[in-house]
């Protein structure tokens, strides 16, 4: 398949004006390198490539190319002060984008990479401010997905990649979600199926001796050996992790959180008022309610959440009722996303 520049507009050069996206379908477990190479080559030359990771789909650009990274912000409508995560195919490339790899960072990388843990360290000062959001630090991770790793290895450059959705919308967990949000703004979408985890990476500051969680995510506080109750710890600190202060994950319909055990009853009550209601919860949907997914635990809710929010929009529902899961382990990260979706 071939992406053609928008005919009649050659002002910006071929890549900038390539308004027709090419979707490359690959086997998620054994990606064909030849199939990926046009996308990898495009990224080296300044193109935007959406690709699957174990958490959500990312929108990748050459992290050292300020103009390409600026295109990522424009495509997403992302606030310029919200920095991007730099994706590497191997931990030893950490030294390419940071100035000091602390013993803590080394230990975390050894334990969790490839995986859904993002490590914040002092940034190589030659990284463009577009990538770091003008901060002296940079967020880095090695994703645990064969397609992402193959693409990153083939591109052989650090790749800045936020989630591949329009800012404020639910994150994408399938190539179809990316196409719906960004189909007119990216050069390639690599379709590697549905993301396994469904909730974003955990972001930790690893400049000191103990990890400081800046954003809850797929690696739990418990798994990091931290106190599960963050208390007054700087979790979600708006200055430390700029992204946590913006509207997030909100679909074009209302979202209500129901208490554990109350999802079906709350959904039924709203349906009686004449609203079209969808349910995400452990129990089957009662008569007259759209069952969006069965979510018996935090992992199931993580996998189903963003797709269900988008499916509710497509179905023209008025309201999605999400039954809470206990706020422990992965449940804390998932409920963070659920509450943000409901606040939108
Ligand atoms: P996204 O890729 O859309 O899931 O967003 C990445 C998250 O990482 C956002 O919440 C950013 O604010 C956060 N982040 C990226 N770089 C840094 C950094 N240098 N320091 C703190 N947080 C960061
Ligand atoms: Mg995001």
Molecular structure report:
This protein is α/β, with parallel strands linked by helices and 344 residues long. The chain has two domains: 2-240, DHBP synthase (Alpha-Beta Complex), CATH 3.90.870; 254-343, Rossmann fold (3-Layer(aba) Sandwich), CATH 3.40.50. The protein is 29% helix and 18% strand. The chain has a ten-stranded mixed β-sheet, sandwiched between helices. Helix 1 packs across helix 6 (146-155) and helix 9 runs parallel beside helix 10 (330-343). The radius of gyration is 20 Å and the shape is globular. It starts with 21 loop residues before the first strand and ends with a helix. Mean pLDDT is 91; it is low at 1-18 and 232-239. Magnesium ion (MG) binds at residues 162-163, 171.
SSE diagram, text form:
Blueprint: E1 22-25, H1 33-44, E2 49-52, E3 57-62, H2 66-76, E4 85-87, H3 94-97, H4 103-112, E5 117-122, H5 129-132, E6 137-141, H6 146-155, E7 159-160, H7 175-182, E8 188-191, E9 202-205, E10 212-215, E11 254-258, H8 263-272, E12 277-281, E13 290-294, H9 298-314, E14 319-323, H10 330-343
Helix pairs in contact: 1-6, 9-10
The structure holds adenosine monophosphate and magnesium ion.
Adenosine monophosphate (AMP) is lined by residues 82-83, 85, 120, 132, 135, 137-139, 162-163, 200, 203, 214-215, 240-244.
Radius of gyration: 20 Å
Would you identify the regions where 5 or more consecutive residues have pLDDT less than 50? 1-18, 232-239
Straight-line N-to-C gap: 38 Å
Structural class: alpha/beta
**Overall helicity:** 25-40%
Give the averaged pLDDT, no decimals. 91
CATH top level class name of the largest domain: Alpha Beta
What is CATH's topology name of the largest domain?
DHBP synthase
In this entry the ligands are: adenosine monophosphate, magnesium ion
CATH homologous superfamily label of the largest domain: DHBP synthase
**What percentage of amino acids are in beta strands?**
15-25%
Main beta sheet strand tally, sense and closure: 10 strands, mixed
Q: Output the helix-strand order.
A: EHEEHEHHEHEHEHEEEEHEEHEH
Shape: globular
Q: What multimeric state do the chains show?
A: single chain
**How many helices does DSSP assign?**
10
Estimate nothing, just give the exact number of structural domains: 2
CATH architecture of the largest domain: Alpha-Beta Complex
Please count the beta strands (DSSP E, at least 2 residues each).
14
Spatially, the strands of the biggest sheet line up as 1-8-2-3-7-4-6-5-9-10
